[in-house]
Amino acid sequence: MAYTKAPFVMIDGDQVSGMAIDLWQSFAQNLNLEYDYKPFEKLSDLVDATAENQVNVAVTNLTVTEDRAARIDFTQPWFDAGLRIMVNEDQGPGLTGLWAGLRDSGYLQAYGWLALVIVLATVGFTFFDRRFDKNFTRHWPAGLAESFYTVMSIATSGRPPSRKNLFGWLGRFWQGIWLVCGIAVFAYVTSSITSVMTTLSLNNHIHSLDDLAGKTIGVAQGSTAQSFIQAANLTAVPFSGMTELAKALTDGKIDALIGDKPVLEYYAHIHPELPLSVVGSVFHPDKYAFALSPDTVLRKALTVEVVGAHEDGLLGDLNRKYFGE
To answer: What is the block-wise mean pLDDT of the chain (325 residues), using blocks of 10 residues?
Structure first.
């Protein structure tokens, strides 16, 4: 009758713990109830089993929804929550995205023309030096290599290697023009790449629900998040639990995941080694309650216990225990 979702339900071998477990055990002790835990891998399976009277009480952070309330009973809510977004901080457009961005922006075509100019300049320098510089190599491959090095030095650093000034002030003036052209080419290439990378970063970074259009979003199967994503006509990929969701996000199989706010925040908190971050404000606010099979007589007694846990500070103590101040 439990579904693992830290920090509400955590199962380690025969040991069962968590906020929902602590709360349930307090209620069971007050009501002198005997119970056994039956774990479920999927939240949807737990809901189905509760509706079909296979279990009496569903102990986890189960969101109260209209569809579920039509099939199962709920106690008084004991936790206010909602949905948030988790993203991979290291996930970016990559080299493939940069190449596509440069192509779509028309920069690759411009780079092609620049490459042609570099080839022509290399050949031109070679013919020029062979014609006017008696000390220039007569070996064509070596001459082309020397001229290519000269052209690339001008294009990348704005400074040519040491060269003879064969034509006095006119030659020096011509060298100055080449320097200006090289600096302009280098500035154009670097600024275009920076511009595309900035645009890709802004387009790929997820801050809120508005940024999820066209993205692949991971959700827990049978969860409120899955219903929300489907209703919003977004692409949802269901997984069995938080561990699988986090792995899919870090592996780049999904762009983001949506889940219960406390679950995501707790997971990011206990896994600082992972590049996971919870972003955006809370949306689709909801409440957690224990679910009961339709034929159970425990609803009133458990609801009284929930109200008492609010009033006597038990829920406040559990909140501080699992989430800090």
So the answer is: 76 88 95 92 89 93 90 94 88 53 67 77 77 76 78 65 54 59 68 62 68 88 87 89 90 89 87 89 90 90 94 92 75
* 140-157 vs 168-204: helix crossing angle, rounded to 10: 60
Could you check whether 2-80+287-323 and 88-93+206-280 share the same CATH topology? yes
Cα separation, 65 vs 293, whole angstroms: 15
Buried b (16+ CB within 10 A) or exposed e, 148-185: bebbeebbeebebeeeeeeeeeeeeeeeeebeeebbeb
Say what the pLDDT of residue 92 is: 54
39: which DSSP letter?
Answer: E
Task: Note whether 249 and 86 are within 8 A (CB).
Answer: yes
Which residues lie below 8 Å from residue 135, measured CB to CB, with a gap of 6+? 164
Burial track 228-249 (b if 16+ CB lie within 10 A, e otherwise): bbeeeebebbbbebbeebbebb
* Distance from the Cα of residue 44 to its chain's centroid: 25
CATH class belonging to 88-93+206-280: alpha beta
Q: Which residues sit opposite 220 in a β-bridge?
A: 239
Q: Where do runs of H (alpha helix) occur along 39-167?
A: 43-51, 66-69, 94-104, 107-132, 140-157
pLDDT for the residue 238: 92
In this prediction, residue 94 carries a pLDDT of: 47
Residue type at position 311: E
Q: Where are the domains of the chain?
A: 2-80+287-323, 88-93+206-280, 105-204
Count of CB atoms situated within 10 Å of the CB of 193? 15
Q: Which helix (H) or strand (E) holds 60?
A: strand 57-63
Q: By the 8 A CB rule, do 3 and 22 touch?
A: no
Q: Among 3.40.50.20, 3.40.190.10, 3.40.140.10, 2.60.120.10, name the CATH number for the domain at 2-80+287-323.
A: 3.40.190.10
The residue to which tokens 């007694």 are assigned: 301
Q: What pTM does this model have?
A: 0.55
